[in-house]
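pls design
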């Protein structure tokens, strides 16, 4: 290993090719997060030069880790793979291209000529492929075409080639479609540098000062590795600052370093094994609980959990993956990547809103924030292609989650529960019977699968309005509404603005007499006899239960609000398009007994929608009501 302190100009001075390996991530730096700060440093150094003030300190931009592709070959341009530092190096090349363009536009031909050999190799006699070897830097494949155009095209040609990203006035769009990051970086550096150059007399002098600051005052620690050095270990040690690497970035680098050591074809491996993970879907940031990370990180955590049956902490993903790949002893990296590709469609179906076999379960798990069930779904889908078995297990998972929520049982042990089920799914080949037995054997409040009796009791006694979040209550009542319908119903969907509302209102004392005909006081205490207090307690016990809740639009709720269960309120409920409200309107009066009766009817619907593992008939797939 040979470390050297080098100015940016020195890095690009000699004839060489710096190649970003195919498995490295694409260009990620943005004006807001990195480039603005970089230009602050460069401009400050340039101002010092213009004021003839000697630079007190050099500015170090971190490390550039290189590994030569081969030893010295006479008459050939040396090639180095960039193990770490490609974001910084690419940014400086983009900046030099922008400054060269500004020099040409201001008739500073000599400055442009001095920049040219920092961007291009000029010794054509040493080139076998002039189209690619002329460039000092070769970015990863997804960035390569745009990068070369930034190096070679004038402004007008770029604006025409990337017209959707420019306004009619020729400015890069700031709203709407997001430009590619290399293009955004080039434009920002160009516009900011132009402002710096033109803000005073003698723009040529200011341009030269800016270049000198960038090329002489900005430094890197350049480390050139020998064949015996472990590039991945050094990379992990040095990688600090810049755009933080996601766990999947670290995994990708490790995977392809191992593939290279195994003499596997990394070009083919990228195309067939990894390229799918380089699409925007996998890089988009997602939130789970309080944690926000790229989707790829969550996917990797769920994959490891499904494959090992053990919880994987997000802050330990990379180490966990290295242990996993070592323990599994795959015959090749290609075989290792097949496992990731196998689980990818399941994850995508779970987190997207696209229709499909998983849509109903995916929606329910999202509403109930039960992503801890993902490893079970991963393991099931990987273990069996039997769609009937899959659908039956999907429905049992949904039933388990919803029944426990209705019964007020704790979700604290779900991680362990679903990992145990994932192991059973994996080891049994996705056997429906094995998973049914496992669900049935759960006991105790931490993982019990509630029985039909438990569910019926919860509908009549559990304070659901206070204990279950509104989105989950809406989901429960939507499913009950759909179950209550038959083939003769003309209305298929539900309005999106339906809210959970009380039938017997929360402030019932004014219009809802007690069973003995008396009105309760506002405080529900003063002046009541012991018998009346008992009546009040009975009523308070049923106000928030599921049997007393329904779905209404806000205007409808305001119309009936706290009023008595009179013909007007009944007519309003009867006119509702919802079967659940028509069922309420059929009651002659609405009191504690009516609430208990309705709770029983709702529980009977719920038992059909969310069956137990002991259901005689196999649970069939239900449509997704999202």
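designed seq:
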């Amino acid at each position: 290993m040979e470390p050297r302190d080098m100015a940016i100009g020195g890095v690009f001075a000699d004839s060489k090719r710096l190649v970003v390996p195919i498995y490295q991530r694409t260009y990620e730096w943005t004006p807001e997060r990195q480039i603005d700060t970089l230009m602050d440093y460069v401009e400050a150094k340039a101002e010092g030069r213009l004021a003839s003030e000697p630079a007190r300190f050099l500015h170090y931009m971190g490390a550039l880790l290189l590994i030569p592709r081969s030893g010295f070959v006479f008459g050939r341009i040396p090639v180095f793979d960039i193990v770490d530092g490609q974001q910084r190096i690419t940014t400086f090349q983009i900046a030099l291209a922008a400054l060269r363009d500004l020099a040409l536009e201001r008739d500073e031909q000599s400055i442009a000529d001095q920049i040219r050999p920092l961007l291009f190799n000029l010794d054509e006699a040493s080139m076998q492929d002039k189209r690619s070897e002329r460039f000092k830097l070769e970015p990863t494949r997804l960035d390569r075409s745009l990068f070369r155009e930034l190096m070679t095209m004038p402004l007008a040609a770029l604006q025409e080639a990337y017209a959707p990203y420019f306004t009619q006035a020729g400015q890069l769009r700031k709203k709407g479609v997001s430009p590619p990051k290399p293009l955004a970086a080039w434009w920002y550096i160009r516009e900011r540098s132009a402002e710096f150059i033109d803000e005073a007399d003698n723009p040529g002098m200011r341009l030269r000062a800016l270049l000198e600051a960038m090329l002489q005052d900005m430094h890197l620690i350049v480390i050139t590795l020998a064949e015996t050095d472990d590039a991945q270990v050094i990379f992990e040690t040095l990688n600090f600052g810049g755009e933080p690497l996601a766990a999947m970035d670290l995994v990708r680098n490790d995977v392809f370093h191992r593939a290279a050591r195994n003499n596997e074809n990394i070009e083919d491996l990228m195309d067939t094994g990894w390229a799918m993970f380089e699409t925007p879907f996998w890089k988009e940031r997602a939130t789970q609980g309080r944690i926000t990370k790229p989707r790829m990180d969550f996917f990797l955590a769920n994959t490891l959990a499904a494959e090992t049956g053990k919880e994987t902490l997000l802050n330990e993903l990379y180490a966990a993956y290295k242990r996993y790949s070592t323990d599994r002893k795959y015959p090749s990296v290609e075989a290792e990547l097949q496992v990731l590709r196998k689980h990818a469609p399941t994850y995508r179906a779970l987190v997207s809103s696209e229709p499909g076999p998983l849509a109903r379960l995916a929606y329910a798990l999202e509403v109930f924030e039960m992503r801890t069930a993902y490893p079970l779904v991963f393991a099931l889908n990987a273990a069996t292609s039997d769609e009937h078995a899959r659908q039956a297990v999907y429905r049992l998972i949904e039933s388990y989650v919803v029944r426990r929520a209705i019964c007020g049982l704790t979700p604290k042990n779900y991680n362990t529960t679903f990992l145990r089920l994932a192991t059973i799914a994996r080891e049994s080949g996705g056997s429906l019977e094995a998973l049914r037995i496992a669900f049935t054997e759960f006991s105790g409040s931490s993982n019990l699968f509630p029985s039909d009796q438990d569910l019926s009791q919860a509908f009549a006694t559990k304070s659901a309005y206070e204990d279950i979040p509104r989105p989950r209550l809406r989901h429960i009542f939507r499913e009950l509404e759909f179950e209550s319908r038959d083939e003769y119903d003309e209305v298929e969907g539900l309005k999106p603005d339906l809210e959970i509302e009380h039938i017997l209102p929360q402030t019932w004392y004014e219009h809802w007499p007690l069973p003995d005909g008396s009105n309760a006081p506002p405080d529900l205490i003063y002046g009541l006899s012991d018998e009346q207090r008992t009546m009040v307690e009975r009523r308070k016990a049923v106000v928030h239960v599921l049997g007393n809740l329904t779905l209404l639009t806000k205007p409808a709720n305001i119309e009936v609000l706290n009023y008595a269960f009179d013909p007007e309120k009944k007519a309003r409920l009867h006119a509702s398009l919802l079967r659940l409200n028509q069922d309420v309107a059929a009651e002659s009066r609405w009191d504690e007994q009516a609430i208990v009766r309705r709770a029983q009817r709702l529980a009977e619907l719920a038992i059909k929608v969310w069956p137990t593992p002991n259901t005689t008939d196999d649970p069939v797939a239900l449509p997704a009501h999202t």
